[in-house]
Amino acid sequence: MSGKKCSLCGGNLDKNYICTECGLDNRKSDKSYKINRSSSNRQYSFGGRKKRRTKGMVILFAVLLLILGVNVLRDVFLDIVYRIETGISGDTYQSEPRDPYEDVEKELCEEGETAEYVLEPGEYIVGVHIPEGKYTAEVQDDFDTVHVSDYQNIIYLYEYAGKEEENYLDDLRLYDGAYVTIDTEDNNTVTLSTENAQIADMHGAANPLTEPVHISSRRTWKAGEDFEAGVYDLEVVKGIGGVTLIVYDREGDSCESRFMYLSADGKSGYRNLVIPENAQISFEEGDAIELTLTPSEVISSVNYLGYYIYYLEEEDE
Predict the structure, then answer these.
(1) Pairing with 5, which of 38, 114, 167, 289 sits 20 to 30 Å away (CA)?
(2) pLDDT, tens digit (0-9, with 9 covering 90-100), for 169-195
(3) Is the distance from CB of 274 to CB of 226 less than 8 angstroms?
């Protein structure tokens, strides 16, 4: 969500409240640590004499981040910070499981239709690509993930079968307007099943774009100049390499960055990728890869920047 800054490093947040600079999950930051701000410099305090120790943890976290990735380490990092601040050791500390639906006031309709959706890696909006309902997710690999961000109902889930703690793959409550991101190994799919799908309430719109776009790693490509801004299904034609999408706000500042490592023989695509005006697609130096951007069949809105900057959704409509 743009307009908000990371409470740890001051970086931009994506629509899931994840910092694009350090990877911190800012949904949990207010409960996990305190931050002192001054008018001239941003200072971070994790509790008096423990500040040096915390700085070391931050450095360690940054190193591990390069090795293991953001998603695995962000919760571990917040847990370490909590222990430092409270003085509780790893041997005695037991985190209490949190009910992700404890703040939800709206009830899902119990009646509906039985439905099943096989989802490839990509991004989906409830009410647009899949109907509202209570779902069970069937994954193919322990680390295939289902990530749910529902700002209206305050639901945030990052679920995969390999979790040591309880996961909610058998209890996914998906309300209209929620964002669902599927991230899997290779081209694995995730199957969502429900018995109360609100299919009659779906409100997707046909994509106004119709022509595919072919791009390659020879250079950087800019939406609005090299191809039309819009919503696309990305697919590898041949080759292998890293693909980065950088989204810019109206002031020209980066507000979201997406990195995907794709291969014609492995994870070869990404569905419903929203590419606003002035967004850029770049490639890792030395990689040779060719892609096709095919307009996605159904979209939620032509307010593409509003997909990343939440407050623009109401402002621009």
Answers:
(1) 167
(2) 999 999 999 999 999 988 899 999 999
(3) no
